[in-house]
Amino acid sequence: MAHLLGAESLHLEHPTRVVFDSVTLGIEEGDRIGIVGRNGDGKSSLLGMLAGTKEPDAGRVTVRGGTRIGVLSQADTLDDDLTIGEAVVGDTPEYEWAGDARTRDVIEGLLAELPWDARLGSLSGGQRRRVSLARLLAGDWDVLALDEPTNHLDVEAITWLAGHLKKRWAPTSGALLVVTHDRWFLDEICTETWEVHDRIVEPFEGGYAAYILQRVERDRMAAATEAKRQNLARKELAWLRRGAPARTSKPKFRIDAANELIADVPEIRDKVSLQSLAVSRLGKDVVDLLDVAVTYSTEDSGTKTVLRDVEWRIAPGERTGILGVNGAGKSTLLGLISGTVEPTEGRVKRGKTVQVRTLTQRIDELAPHWNDPVRVVISGLRTSYTLGAGSKAQDLTPGQLLERLGFSSAQLSTPVKDLSGGQQRRLQLLLVLLDQPNVLILDEPTNDMDTDMLAAIEDLLDSWSGTLLVVSHDRYFLERVTDQQYAILPGPDGVGRLRHLPGGVDEYLRLRQLQDAGRGATAPAAATAGTGSPSSAPAPTPASAGLDGAALRTAQKEVSALERRIQKLTEQVDAAKHALADHDQSDYAGLGDKMAAITAQESEIAELEEKWFELTEQIG
Predict the structure, then answer these.
(1) Prediction pTM value
(2) Which of 135, 163, 357, 507 is the Cys-Cys partner for 437 at CB 3.0 to 4.6 Å?
């Protein structure tokens, strides 16, 4: 394949250390390269040198004549006075960009919910990130260099971006370089992985899953100092093989070799022991949301209902991921559980022993310790922390916990304000864990984390006994640390309702597509002429218009019957989950049978809900 750009003997130094020493690389037409490594090892610097935005101290980067390189950096360089339209398409006439299928696809995928003439100064950080990405993707490039492109994107937008990149950059066109901690995204789009470590860049064939396999093979031959890293990687490989068959069934992933490497690796979580310990810490009752609704007052003296008909009995030891678009009501739901939000309808019942702690997105919670060294911050906390259950339980000191979270002994004397964003985030998690809560809520915990540190945190959470609730746009992390997922989806009245997802994230994405299709089928025709906005064509007639009176009544009766059946099954599932707490925890076969029965009922609920949704779309 044609050569696009190359790097020869690159050398880069910071005042305190050498980042790269004599690195030589080449990028060919069709390369899809993911760049991974620990925070601070030089991933963004490498991307900048290859893209021409950063000069090396020695060596050179050569680019084939005429090669166009597009760069998405982490910095926000957009002009506040520009509108979204001006930022994305500039002064290009509307008939030109509106007639370009690629530009329309980018606008629809990233900016459909934003006003086309809104000033950038009025947008949030996440919305500005979408505009920067759309601006880049609307251009013509031979090489695309993306630095953390999934930051501030939700699960749907990340899925769209992966599909867009795979479609636009076919195996024989252009080249793609991506720095990201989103491991699902890496595995979805990359055919090669570069690991940045110890002043070098080490290439691996395949995406993230294949990279993990090859790294385990490499680490097995490494010295004893690599033992801890090796064990973490082998554990993650075990999860990839046993818990995510869709990822590991790709031809590039050598299944026989992987199975041999993980033959002696136990299941990542001892679910029975953790469940037993969770029941002993929490009792049978954790938090029950009973027919809850939440309504807020708006600025115009009106009201807005965010959640309605929420019925959720959270079980001891439950590990649940929560999905939903921005603004769907996820934070409100977490507030109901933690007690910071009161319901306007229904009630919230909490167990007497419940202690809820939340890892929020606000780093300013560390402000009281801003000038204190890490050693001082942890010295006033408990002297030990119990991790694991049963025979695997172990008591760790705060210092040992810090070590598991990637802190070196030298960093214990570093003031909190001088830590990196990822280190501050890890310290924040440590302070939450040392409070010994039995209900732990994680709100976007993966921010500012590299892939190795995410694996370490996942390993730590595998031994945490208690109820775990996670909100995250990082699909890999969500699937890795939780056993089930729920979503907040709008009902027919547009108000959010909580729904179980037996099919996980894939089911959520499918339901969202169905909802978007339903809205497109019933929405009024969009204004087109003279607006300058990316409007859609006039909407088709609602599906219900094709139903005669008798068919409509029959459909309405079937919807009512489905709702009653779904309600009955949901109550049975909730009762069965609570009954698990009374079951003999040493009866593995009996527990397995009960869990299988619960899973079968949940699958039936999912099928009934899908049928209900299709019927309500027909009724309109």
Answers:
(1) 0.69
(2) 357
